């Protein structure tokens, strides 16, 4: 009995700490994806406006890569636990544009994860090449410590 009491105390503290931290996914911060690209999302404002910076690890010409701005929106549903979002990246080193859309989830291990799908629009010189100018892909982001 004397020995069981501290154990119960530790257990209740652990459970109490758990219930105090709601399972929420917050877009603000620095993220890395499955390709080794990183992005930083600045604090989202009260209307859901979202801005940040993207460091890609991949490009058709990787020696030209530069940090590029991103701009978009986050949905502010109440309560904001696992918000949907979308943003555009303006690649500063090419004529391409990428749009991302996704959702900020808390996975079964309690870890925040961004599941996204993107469209990359390449610049082509004439309308005959339009058919090959759009690429699609997916990326999974986790928080970069
Ligand atoms: C997300 O995190 C930022 C910075 O840590 C904080 O300012 C903001 O209030 C958080 N947003 C929500 C919805 O919890
Ligand atoms: C992104 O790149 C900039 C400039 O190269 C660098 O200063 C910054 O630390 C990088 N951020 C991340 C999260 O990789
Ligand atoms: C992303 O961040 C990691 C860790 O700081 C760094 O090693 C890597 O070079 C960064 N990648 C890019 C593309 O900035
Ligand atoms: C890639 O970018 C570098 C630096 O801007 C440039 O010198 C080189 O010619 C480019 N290569 C191609 C294949 O466009
Ligand atoms: C978007 O990228 C282009 C380079 O392609 C640059 O000239 C322009 O200033 C950028 N605009 C913004 C708002 O970042």
From TrEMBL:
Homotetramer. InterPro entries: Avidin, Avidin-like_sf, Avidin/str, Avidin/Streptavidin-rel. It comes from the Eukaryota. GO terms for molecular function: biotin binding. The keyword Secreted applies. Forms a strong non-covalent specific complex with biotin. This is Avidin. The gene is Avd_3. Residues 1-19 form the signal peptide. The keyword Disulfide bond applies. Its main location: secreted. One of its GO terms (cellular component) is extracellular region. Belongs to the avidin/streptavidin family. Keywords: Biotin, Disulfide bond, Glycoprotein, Secreted, Signal. Disulfide bonds join 25-104. It is found in: Secreted.
């Amino acid at each position: 009995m004397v020995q069981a009491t501290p154990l119960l105390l530790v257990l209740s503290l652990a459970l109490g700490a758990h219930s105090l931290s709601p399972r929420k996914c917050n877009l603000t911060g620095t993220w890395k994806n499955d390709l080794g690209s990183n992005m930083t999302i600045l604090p989202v404002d009260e209307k859901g406006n979202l801005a940040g910076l993207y460091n890609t690890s991949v490009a058709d010409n990787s020696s030209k890569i530069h940090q590029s701005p991103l701009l978009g929106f986050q949905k502010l549903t109440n309560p904001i636990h696992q918000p949907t979002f979308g943003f555009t990246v303006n690649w500063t080193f090419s004529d391409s544009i990428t749009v991302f859309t996704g959702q900020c989830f808390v996975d079964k291990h309690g870890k925040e994860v961004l599941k996204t799908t993107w469209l990359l629009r390449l610049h082509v010189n004439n309308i005959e090449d339009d058919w090959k100018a759009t690429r699609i892909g997916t990326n999974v982001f986790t928080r970069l410590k």
